[in-house]
Amino acid sequence: MNHAESLNILKRVLQDTQTLVIVGGQFGDEGKGKFVSLLALPFDWIVRFSGGANAGHTFYVDGVELKTHLIPSGIGQPGKTNVIARGVFFSLSSFIDEFFKITNQLKSVGRKPSQILIDRLCPLFTPYHLLLEAYLEAIKGAEKIGTTGKAIAPLEALRKLRISPVVDDLFSQERLHRAMTELSRALEPIIKELLTMPQGQDFKQPSLSEVCGQYLKEANLLRLLGQDKRVQIIDTSLALWEAYRQGKTILCEGAQAIGLDPYWGTYPFVSAGNSVAAGASLGTGLPPQTCSTSILVFKTVPTRVGAGPFVSEYWERQAAEEFALATPHLFEQGKARSRFLREKLERINNGLASKAEFSQYFQVLGFDRGATTKRGRSTGCLDLQWLRYAIRINGPRWLAFGGLDKYSGLKQIPVVTGYSLDGRVLGPREMPLTRELYRVEPVVTYLPGWNEDIIGARSEEELPTNACVFITWLEQALEVPLLLIGTGPEHDHLIVRT
Ligand code: IMP
Description:
Elements: H1 3-13, E1 19-24, H2 32-39, E2 45-48, E3 57-61, E4 64-68, E5 81-84, H3 92-108, E6 115-119, H4 127-140, H5 152-160, H6 173-196, H7 208-226, E7 231-234, H8 236-245, E8 250-253, H9 278-284, E9 294-299, E10 303-304, H10 317-326, H11 335-349, H12 355-365, E11 378-379, E12 382-383, H13 384-394, E13 398-402, E14 412-421, E15 424-425, H14 434-437, E16 441-448, H15 465-478, E17 482-486, E18 494-496
Parallel strand pairs: 1-8, 1-9, 2-5, 2-8, 5-6, 6-7, 9-13, 12-14, 13-17
Antiparallel strand pairs: 3-4, 10-11, 14-15, 14-16, 17-18
Helix pairs in contact: 4-5, 4-6, 6-7, 11-12
This protein binds inosinic acid.
Inosinic acid (IMP) binds next to helix 5.
């Protein structure tokens, strides 16, 4: 089956779906972009409803890989309307950098960016938010969250304290100055203290007039982009509502995942955007019943970065992060990498591998390390207790998972099927407190693996029997239809199921 045929199947499956919400089912980095690249094709409007510059989204246009933080994945498709809705934390400088970068990348494949609408009430990132985040991380010390440094939680918290500048303030010198003054006064004692701390050594007190001047300059650039209606700052909830009423189809792309959601994730080791399906309605202003169909994305080898519990994790977080830093050669194609993977797989299959070796094997196999930091992402095994919880909270119509190919060569596939806490096996949809998750003993089941290389498989007929058995077993265990299955690293390495 080729890509066009996969798309046709998908269109048939989605023919009655006017609005679809895509959310992450684990701790972020599930590879949502691969599925979004295909799912976005039949939709008219592509909307970001949560997250901000903390999220990295990778998607594909004509097979070319594009990376954005804020800009929706419809940007490379003509005729699409892309929306940065009110639930998004807006960084003006990130947006401008991204816009010009993506315009150049699209030019190289003969395309232009499609239209972008930005909500006028998105909270606006400022250097003050950054200082607040640095202070909060500093006072937490060893218990720090390990944020991405984009001040996402301060943006949300200060919005709730009614003291955050918003995008609309960019268009009046007076409003911007007032909002920045309020913010700097409110945070003054905190900033002063931060600057006396060792963690504050790299920061300095921002100059109010310089900050305002810089923002007004960048706002002018936004205005220029708005002249030919390429970028518009409006009430996106109204535009979305009108589009919905006219029968346009709308894809809402989630950022992060339930594990990082401030209400439903592993609080306090969470981000601040509403990353569960309910966040689509809150973040876009579309009524809940109009965006109630969702698809939950997960991967066969989940990963976690930053701090926080991860029950099915193979190894210690820090050790996993440092392993990738110490062995960059294993993350490049070549003989050393192939030999390493072969030797580790043999030890795993002979029952000789330690937990550290499991972790290293999957980390290297999946190139699981940060693109900029090169720190490893700690890996774990598929956790059905967690996914059943994610399904309970999100209520997805379908599931999509990536990385079926990562099981190839394993004699047995380990899967966490339940949790035991202090000697009690938990109910199938129970989720313990964050502090209890550190004590949970996972109940592990092993499924038969397969030897065949399945990279790039496009239909179930191309899969070995045990891979099909695994898919059916997983679908029955999770009680939600599996619509999309990733079978390799390329954007079109996937199976669309009917
Ligand atoms: P923040 O979003 O920068 O506040 O970070 C809070 C936590 O969420 C940290 O542990 C981050 O590592 C994690 N996090 C935030 N965004 C992502 C993401 O896109 N993928 C994976 N982890 C993320």
